[in-house]
Structure formats: structure tokens, C-alpha cells
Please model this.
Amino acid sequence: MKRPLITVVGSYATGLTMRVQRLPRKGETVLGTGYRTDFGGKGSNQAVGCARLGAEVHFLTKIGNDSFGEMALRLYREEGINTTAVITTNHAPTGVGFILVEEATGDNCIALDAGANELLSAEEVGQHGDALDRARVVLSQLEIPVETAGVAFARARASGVMTILNPAPVRPLPSSVLQVVDILTPNETEARVLTERAPDAVATPAELAADLIRLGVKQVVMTLGERGALLVTSSSSKHFPAIQVQATDTTGAGDAFNAGLATSLAFGDTLEDAVQVGVVAGGLAVTRHGVIPSLPHRREVLKAYHDARLPVPNWISS
Model:
């Protein structure tokens, strides 16, 4: 079966993590252990997830001309991701996150520098428009400028390409962006913010999704954590329970879900079938530590389908 093209427009960032006995106070230096460097950025994670599931992936992003940027390029070569649209700049460093994790509680504090991600412009999207025009699916997130994601979606929509927006980290979105989104994939907190509610406002997932559709989104696939996912269109809704797994680390679940959803749609599945693939991929991701190590390969998804006695889409078993 021919691999369909997915173009991901998004971010790359390197995560620098250290464990400490307790989080430092103002002006204090503490000793840490277990320092590690990890691949990160939602766009990058989802690009890797799509490639592992069997799609041809082009990644449109911006990195610095530095060692962290070289680290990203090595990852993409290893994962078989096309880097023609990976732009290197001398005007900003590769995005980075500094993460301190408290040993006893798991509490953390994080400082993020988006770096080169903030410089990914609408003009550069236009320069790589061929990767958008030829795709079956264009997938983006909000770790890049909103305008850039919006221009990518408008270009894709004009070419008849399906658009998926994972609105994380959440921020208010203009109607001009929402109206070029075919499928929005928020969690409940993100949906509240996008509908201008307080993060802790009382509202059912179905109510939140209905409001998002009224704002211009075609369809909403809301992730519900251990409760699975909810698909809502203008005329129907359907709940998809999570698969039964032993959760270890939920960090990469959302990225795995979006990769599964996008890849399934690119292969021609119905939206209902694609949501099920997303649920299975997200469920597998929580069984491992870390994000990149947790993103499942297609053979693992196939096994999970058999274990759960679910009907397997043809492309997964081919």
C-alpha cells in the first residue's frame, strides 16, 4: 500500500531535565542528578509518530544553527522524515526547555525558550507550499505563531487537503483560523479556554465541542485521558473508550493520539475509525516513559487491536 503524505507544520525543542531533592527558592542553587537531554516539541513528536505508523512525513519547522538543531536532524534521518522544509536560522537558537523535577513528589518547574520556532513565518510556509498542496493531511499545533498555522491551513484547504489542529499550548484563536480547521483535537481544559470559559468552568465535553463547532470548526475530537475520546460533528457525537493498559507516563499520549488520528485519515479511514486508531496509539504511549520512546510503531498498534479484539483497518495489517 502506497504511503500517504502528511505534512506537519510545527515546533522542535530540546528538553533538558534534571531531578532535584526539592525545587530551589529564589536565589538558591541546589544539586541535581539524572541530567538528560530529550527530543521534544509537539510538531516534532507528532511527525515522528506519523512516520512510525507508516506515513510519508514532511516536517516544516525552524531550528537554530547549533548542536541541538543537528540533534533534531539526526532524529529525522533515523525516523525517515523528509527534512526539505526544515529551515535552519542563524538568528535564534533551537527551542529549548529547562525542566527541574522534584524527586519525592514529581512536581516540576519549567522554563521554555521557543527560540527559532517563533521565527517560523507565514512567508516561509508559502515557500514550501508544495508540501502542503500534495499532502493528504496537514497537521499543526500552537507552539509556532498562530498566523503561521493559519496560513498553512488556508493553503491546504484551498488545495482540498484535510487540516487537523492540536490546540496546544492553548491560546485564544481568531475565527479566521478556526474556520480553516477540519478537525480540532483539544483536551477539556483547552476546549474551555477556546470557548472563553474559565479553565475550571463546569461544562460537559459535548457542550464544549458544540460551542467549538458554532465557532467555525468542522469537527471536534476531544481527548478525555483515561476516559478515551469524544467525536462531535454538527449532527452527531460518539464516545470511544480508552483501551485497558497499565499507565506509566502520560506525557506523550496526546502526541501519539494525534499521530494515530492523522495517519489513519491519510490512509483513507473514516473519521470514526481514525479516532479509534488515535485512542489505541495514545493508550500504548502511556505504558512507557518519555515521549519519543513511547510513540508506537504500526506493528505495536496491530497487536493492540488484536489484544482488544477490535476490527483492524486494512492499512494497519498490510
